[in-house]
Write a structure and sequence with these properties.
The protein is mainly α. It has 18 helices and no strands.
C-alpha cells in the first residue's frame, strides 16, 4: 500500500470516528433535548453568572472580605468557563442567526479575560488551527508553545504570551516569511499574520501585560535587593500606583495568568506538532486525563479530556461534549487514538514512533523529534 492509499485509509477512518462520535453526542441530545432547544439562553446564563462571579470576587477583595489567594483561584475558575464560551462563540454555537447578541457575548467573555487575543481576531487563527493543526502554520497552538522543547524557556512562555513573544521575537518576525517563501501560506496570510501580531492585544491586553510585568520586575528587584541585604527606594509616584494596580492584579490579571498557564500546559501538550499527516485528525490530538493532571484540568474545564473530541465533531457546545465524554472516549480508544502519551513532553510534541504500525504519510513542517 503506497502513501496515498495510507492517507486515504486514515481519512476514511477519521470519517468513521466522526460518525461514531456524532452518535455518542446524539444520545446526550436525545436524553436532554432542552440543552439544544435552549442553547442560546444557556450560553447567555453561563456568561452572566460567570461575569457576576468575577465581579463578586473583586468586590469581596476590595471590601477586605476575601483573601487574595481565594480571589485568584475562584476568578480563574469563572474565567475558565468564559474561555469555553468564547470557543463555542467562535464556532457560532450561540445566537448563530443574531449577530448582535453573538457579538455582545463575544465582548462579555473578552472583558474578563484581557490577557488573551481578542476573540474576533482569534476566530481567524482558530479556524486555521482546525485546517492546519500540527503544521508550522498552525499559529494558534504554536503561540502557546506547542512544538517547543521543554525547559525553563518553555515554562516561562506557557503562562505569559507576551513573554513568549519576547523570547521568540526573531521567530515571530522571520517565521511567517519562511512559510510564505516555502508556499505554506499565501501573501494574504502573511499580511493577516502581521495585522494579528500588531492588533491582537490592543489596547486592553497590552495595558494589563504592562502592569503585570512592571509588578513582576518590582517583586524580583526587591527580592534580589533583600538577598543582598539592602533595599530599593522606589519613587513615591510609583508606589502610589499600588492603590489601583494591586486590585487589578489580584482580581483580573493573576487569575488569568493562572488559567492560561493551566490551559496552555494541557493544550500545547495534547496537540501534536511537526511530523503529522496534514489533514488527518487522528494524528492531531491525544486525550490527556491522567489523575495527576486534575489541578490543571480544573482551570480549563477538563480540556485535555474532551478537546480531541472537538477536533472530530465541531458542532457540540463544551457542556454537551463533556456529557458525552465517556462514550466518546470508548470510540476514540477503539480507533487507537492515544491516551496519556506523556512522552510528548520529551519529544517536543512530535507524533514520534509510539505506534509504528500506524500508516505514515508525507511529513509537514519539522520531521525530526526534538
Amino acid at each position: 500500500m503506497d502513501n496515498s492509499q495510507n492517507i486515504d485509509a486514515m481519512l476514511k477512518e477519521d470519517k468513521q470516528i466522526q460518525k461514531e462520535l456524532l452518535a455518542a453526542s446524539d444520545k446526550v441530545r436525545q436524553r436532554h433535548p432542552w440543552l439544544v432547544k435552549h442553547q442560546n439562553a444557556i450560553g447567555m446564563i453561563i456568561m452572566l453568572v460567570s461575569l457576576a462571579g468575577v465581579a463578586l470576587n473583586a468586590w469581596l477583595y476590595i471590601a477586605d472580605i476575601m483573601p487574595a489567594w481565594a480571589v485568584i483561584v475562584l476568578t480563574a475558575l469563572w474565567t475558565s468557563l468564559l474561555h469555553e464560551l468564547e470557543h463555542d462563540l467562535i464556532h457560532s454555537m450561540y445566537f448563530r442567526k443574531n449577530r448582535f447578541w453573538l457579538n455582545v457575548m463575544m465582548l462579555g467573555v473578552y472583558i474578563a479575560r484581557p490577557m488573551t487575543q481578542n476573540p474576533w481576531i482569534r476566530k481567524h487563527l482558530h479556524f486555521r488551527h482546525h485546517k492546519m493543526s500540527g503544521t508550522a502554520s498552525d499559529l494558534e497552538e504554536r503561540a502557546i508553545t506547542n512544538g517547543e522543547k521543554w525547559g525553563i524557556r518553555r515554562l516561562l512562555m506557557t503562562g505569559d504570551l507576551i513573554i513568549g513573544f519576547y523570547l521568540r521575537i526573531r521567530a515571530h518576525i522571520m517565521e511567517p516569511l519562511r512559510l510564505y517563501k516555502e508556499g505554506e501560506i499565501t501573501k494574504e496570510d502573511l499580511h493577516n499574520m502581521r495585522l494579528i501580531a500588531v492588533f491582537s492585544y490592543l489596547p486592553y491586553g497590552i495595558f494589563c501585560y504592562l502592569v503585570w510585568h512592571a509588578f513582576l520586575l518590582i517583586v524580583i528587584a526587591n527580592g534580589v535587593a533583600a538577598a543582598m541585604g539592602t533595599s530599593i527606594a522606589w519613587p513615591a509616584w510609583l508606589m502610589e500606583q499600588q492603590v489601583w494596580a494591586m486590585p487589578l492584579i489580584v482580581t483580573l490579571i493573576a487569575p488569568n495568568i493562572l488559567r492560561m498557564f493551566c490551559l496552555h500546559l494541557i493544550s500545547s501538550n495534547m496537540h501534536y506538532y511537526g511530523d503529522v499527516v496534514k489533514g488527518v485528525i487522528q494524528q492531531q490530538c491525544q486525550v490527556l486525563n491522567k489523575w495527576y493532571l486534575a489541578p490543571f484540568q480544573l482551570f480549563c474545564f477538563n480540556f485535555g479530556s474532551t478537546h480531541a473530541i472537538h477536533h472530530f465533531v465541531v458542532r457540540d457546545t463544551f457542556y454537551i461534549r463533556q456529557l458525552a465524554a465517556k462514550d466518546s472516549h470508548e470510540v476514540l480508544r477503539a480507533h487507537g487514538i492515544r491516551f496519556n502519551d506523556m512522552g510528548t513532553f520529551l519529544r517536543a510534541n512530535r507524533w514520534g514512533k509510539v505506534e509504528a504500525e500506524r500508516p505514515v504519510g508525507p511529513m509537514i513542517g519539522e520531521t525530526k523529534p526534538a
